[in-house]
Amino acid sequence: MDRGPFVFGIRHLSPAGAYYVREFLDKIQPELVLIEGPSDFTELMEDLAQADVRPPVAVMAYTRQLPVRTILYPFAEYSPEYQALLWAKEHGRKCRFCDLPSDVFLGLLSAREAAGDEETGSQGRDGHKKTPECSFDVYQALDRQCGDGDHETFWERTIEQCRDMAGYQKGAKEFGSGLRQLELCLGPGEENSENLAREAYMRRMIEKARTEGISEEKMAVITGAFHAEGILCGDPAMTDKEFLRLPRLESMKTLMPYSYYRLSQRSGYGAGNHAPAYYEYLWQGFLKGEADYAARRYLSGLGEYERTSGGMVSAAEVMEALRLSQALAGLRGGRIPALRDLRDGAVTCMGHGRFSKVSLAVASVEIGTKIGSLPQGVSQTSIQSDFYEKLRELRLEKYKSVTASSLNLDLRENLRVKTKKAAFMDLERSFFLHRLRVLNIRFGTLELVRQDNATWAERWVLQWTPETEIRLVETVLKGDTLEQAAAFELKGKVEESQGIGMVAKVVAEAFYCGMPLAVHGALAALQAMAVDAAALGEIGDTIEQLSVVLQYGDIRRLDRQPLIPIVSQLFLRACLILPQECACDDQAAAGLVSAIGKLHQAVMVHDFLDRERFVAVLSQISSRDDLNTRLSGAAASILLEMGAMDSQELGREVERRLSKGIPAQLGAGWFSGLSSRNHYALIARLTLWEKLSAYLDTLDDEEFKRALLFLRRAFADFAPGEKDQIAENLGEIWQVNPMQVSEMLNESLTEDAMEFLGGLEDFDFGDI
Amino acid sequence: MSDANVQRLPAEQLFQKELDALMEQETGAVPQGWRMSPKSVLTYICGGRCGNMDISAKYIGDRRLVEIAIATLVTDRALLLIGEPGTAKSWLSEHLAAAINGDSTRVIQGTAGTTEEQIKYSWNYAMLIASGPSREAMIPSPVYRAMEQGTIARVEEISRCASEVQDALISILSEKRISVPELGIEVPARKGFSVIATANTRDKGVNEMSAALKRRFNIVVLPAPESLEAEMEIVRSRITQLSENLDLNAKLPNEEVVEKVCTIFRELRRGATLDGKQKLKSTSGVLSTAEAISLLANSMALAGSFGDGTVTERDLAAGLQGAVVKEDSKDQKVWLEYLENIMRKRGSKWLPLYEECKELNR
Description:
The structure holds two protein chains of two kinds.
Chain A: E1 6-10, H1 15-28, E2 32-38, H2 45-48, E3 57-63, E4 70-75, H3 80-90, E5 94-99, H4 102-126, H5 138-146, H6 151-160, H7 165-185, H8 190-211, E6 219-224, H9 225-232, H10 240-245, E7 251-257, H11 260-263, H12 276-288, H13 293-308, H14 315-331, H15 339-349, H16 355-367, H17 382-393, E8 405-410, H18 420-423, H19 425-438, E9 444-447, E10 457-462, H20 466-474, H21 482-496, H22 500-512, H23 516-530, H24 536-552, H25 563-581, H26 586-605, H27 611-623, H28 629-642, H29 647-658, H30 664-677, H31 679-683, H32 686-698, H33 701-714, H34 720-734, H35 738-746, H36 751-767
Parallel strand pairs in A: 1-6, 2-5, 2-6
Antiparallel strand pairs in A: 3-4, 3-7, 8-10, 9-10
Helix pairs in contact in A: 1-3, 1-12, 7-9, 8-9, 12-13, 13-14, 13-15, 13-16, 14-15, 15-16, 19-21, 21-22, 21-23, 22-23, 22-24, 23-25, 24-25, 24-26, 25-27, 26-28, 27-28, 28-30, 29-32, 30-33, 32-34, 34-35
Chain B: H1 11-14, H2 16-24, H3 38-46, E1 48-50, E2 53-55, H4 63-74, E3 78-83, H5 89-101, E4 107-109, H6 116-119, E5 121-123, H7 125-131, E6 138-140, H8 142-149, E7 152-156, H9 163-175, E8 177-180, E9 185-188, E10 194-200, H10 211-214, E11 217-222, H11 228-246, H12 255-270, H13 289-306, H14 313-324, H15 329-341, H16 351-360
Parallel strand pairs in B: 3-10, 3-11, 4-7, 7-10
Antiparallel strand pairs in B: 1-2, 5-6, 8-9
C-alpha cells in the first residue's frame, strides 16, 4: 500500500460512496478521519453521530449580522460523509471536518455577491455582455456528451452501480480529475481560486494533524472527487498569514432537520439529488446486498401509489415494467436499470405510454415526504429549542409534517377540562401561530373564516418545511424566544410606521399574538402620534382596528382599559374636523364615506363614545348646503339608521334637496349618498317615496326630463329585488298593482326610450 | 433482387446496403431470432456510423422512444405504437421489422372488414372440399407464419378492427401458440416471435381496444415532430427518397418552400403562430408531417409534368388548398382567415404564395 494520507474521492449524496467509504475505512483503519465540511462544524460531530438522529439533517451556518446569509450542509443517511463520521464514532477514532471554516465561507459568499453587483453595474455602463465562454457549464456539456439523457444517469450507470470498492474509487477519481482539468483550463475564475484555497486549507489541516503526531499512513480524507487530486498534489499548505487574510463574517451554527423534498430542489450545498427517496432504496440495496433491490422497490412503490390513489396497476404490469427497464439497461450494456430506465419502463407499461398518468406516483416515490429529526437537546439555537418546546407543550408536534393539514381552533375557555392550561390550549396555540406569522416564519397560514362565530374560531393550515427552520434560525438575531423575537419585530414595526393607521395595525397584531406589553408599547406610540393626527381616513382606519381589539379583546384575555382613552380621543378629533373635511370633491368624498361609516360602526358598538356629539355633527353635515352633497346624503342615511332623523324631517330634506332650481347633478349626488349605505333602510320608509312622488308631480315636462336623469343614475345600482320593493311602495302610493309597476321598472328599455334618454343626455349637458 | 419497376420497395430492400453493413460489422450479442443486436437496430433507425458507412436516420425524433420500442421487442413483449395520423407509426414499425428480421412484409392491415381468419389461418376451399383438411389446404396468416419462423408480424391500424378480431390476438399474445383443431395440431411460437401493432389516436372510439388486449402490449406514444427544424429535416429526407423512387422529373423544392409548408402545417395544427403570439383556428383534419411530404411530392409532380421542373408558388398553392380544405366548409373559412390574418402580413417572401392561394379561393 502506498503512503498516506489516503484520500477517498466521493460524490456527495452517493449511496455507493457511502457504502464503500466504510469498506475503505475498515481496510486502512485510520486513526484520524478528515471529512470535507467546514472545520468549525467539528464540534457538532458529537451531536450528529448520536444514535437517535434521523437523517436527513443539515448543519447550517449563519451570519450574526443582517442581512442574514446562510450556508447549508445537508446529510442524508446515504451521504458518504455521514457514514464516515458514524464509522469513526463506532470505532472510537478521531474525526474532523477539514474544509475552510464557515465564517470564511460566508465571507467569500458576501464578497462574491458584492463583486457580482459591481460587475453587473459596470456591465450596464459599458454595454458589454459576458462572453459565451465564461458561461460554459461543465455539467451541461456532460449532459450533451454522455448521450444518456443527463449526467445524473451517466453517473448512476458508471459509478453508482459499481459492484466493488476499487471500481468506485477508480471511477470517482477519473471523473474528478477530468472535471478538474476542464474547470482549471477554463481559466482563473473566482470559483477556481476558491477551490484552490479550500484545498490549500485541507492540506493545512493534514499538516496540523501531522504535527500532532498522527502519521500520514493513519489518516483518511473523505472529500469530493474533484478535490482528491488537489489534496495530493504536494503544493504547500495554507500558511497562517494566508489564512488570516481570507474574508470573514462572524457566524453561528446549528443543526436542523431537513427534508427529502428540499434535498430534491438542488438548493444549498453540493450536487443536490433529484430523487432522494430512490437513492435511499439504492442505499438499502447495498445494505441488503441485492443489486436490483432499488429497481424492484421503486416500481412496486409506483404500483402501490397508483392502487391506493385509485389507479389500476396490476402486479403483472409492475413485472413487465421491470423487464422492460432491464432490457433498456441492456441496450446500454448494463444489467441493473438506472432511474431513467425504470421511469421509462413505468411510463410504457403502467402509464400506457403517457407520463402524465404516472407523474404523481413518480414524484411521490422519487422524492418522498421524509423529514429528518433531531433528539431533544441536540445543539440548537435558543429559539429553535423554544419553538420545539412550544410545539410539545401545545401538542402541535404531529403537525410538523411536509403535508399540509388543517387545524381548527376554538379560542373560548374549555370548561370541560381540569387544568387552566388545558382550558386555554387553543388560545395559546393561536398566540403561538400568530407570533410565527408576525415573524414571517412560514408554518401556519390563517384561513378566512366566514361564519357568525368567527370571533372565537380560527382555522389554520399547518405545514412544516425546512424553510420554516431556516427562518426560525435567522430569527435568533431578534431574540432568544419566540415571544421576545415577536416583541422585537413589533417594536421595529412601530418605529418604522409612518402614520397612526400603521401603528394601529401593530396594536392589532400584538393583540392577536397575546402580548400585552407589546400592545401597550404600541399604544404609547400611537398616543404620541395621535396628538397631531392626521387625515380623517387614517383616523377612521385606526378606530376600526382598535375597535376590533376592544370588541374581541375579551376572548384573548387582554386588558382593554388603556385603549379606551385613545379611541375616545381620536373619535373626538374626528368629530371636530369632520364638517370642514366634507367640503371636497367627489373623489375625496368616496374615502370620507367609508371613514364616516367606520366611525358610525365604532359608535354603535362602544358605549363610551360620545354618541350625541356624533349625531350633532352628522345633522350639521346633513343640513348644510355648502358641503359635498353626496356626504350630506350619506350623513342623512346614517342619521336615519340611528333613528336620529324622523320621516317628517326626511321628507323635508328630500323636498329641499330635489326642489326646483337645484342642479340635477347635485340632487343626484345627494340621493346617491343617501342610498349608498343601506338600500333597505330607504325602501322601508314609505314617506320617502311619498315625498318623491309628490315632488315629481310638481314638475313640469322640462323639469321632469331633468329629474329623470339623476333619478335614473341614483337607482342604477339597486338590485332587481330591491326595485321590486320600491315598486311595491310606489304601487301603494299610486294605488295600482305593484306587479305591474315592478314589471315596468325592471323591464329593459325599448329602443325609443333609449333614444329619448340619449337625447336628454345631450340636452342636459349643454344646459349645465 | 430489387426490381426497378416496383412502385414501392419494402424497407429491407431499399436500405439493403445499410443492413448488410450493420450485420457484417456486428459486435454485440444478437438475440435469438434476430439478425443483429439491439444496438445495431437502434443505429439503423436513428442513424449513425457503421465502419466507414453512414447510416441514414429513418426516424427523426426522440431517440429514447426508439430505444424503448427496441427494448420491448427484446423482452418478447408485443409493441403498440400509437399517435396522431402521420407521426411515422407504420414507418417505424416497418423499419423495425426490416432491421430485426430482414422482412417487413408480414403485415395485416386492420380494417372494418378484417376477419379472425386473417389473423389466424384460412383455407383453400377447393382443396378443402376435394381432399379434406390438410396442411396443404391451409393458408397460414402472416401472424401464423411469423410464429412458425420466430419473426415479427405487423398489424396496422389495430383499432379499426372489430373487437372479436382484436380478441383473437389476445390468446395468441398470451399463450404464444395457435391451435388448428381441424388438423389436431398446435403451433407454438418460436423464440423471436413478436407483434408490432399501430393505432391511431384520431380513431379512438371506433373500436376501443379492450383493457385485456392493451395489457399485452407495451405502449409507445409517438409525438408530432418537436420543432420546426426537426419537421423540415423529416420532410426533406423523405422527399429526396421519394423523388428518386418516383422519377418525378422535378428539382427538389428548395429550403424556403419546405420551410413555408412546414410552418403553415405546424401553425394550423397548433392553432397558434410559431412564435406563440397569435392564436388562430385549427382545421378539422390532421395536418400531419406525412401530408406535408405528399403535398410536396404532389407539387413536384405538377411541376415536372406541366411546368419547367421547378416547384412554383402556383404548384404549392394548389397542393395546400387540397391538403388544408378537406371536406368541411369550415376548413375553407379557417384557411381564408389564415391567409388574410397571418400570411398576408408576413412580408415579401410570402407574398407570391399568398397571391396564388387567394387566386384559388376567389
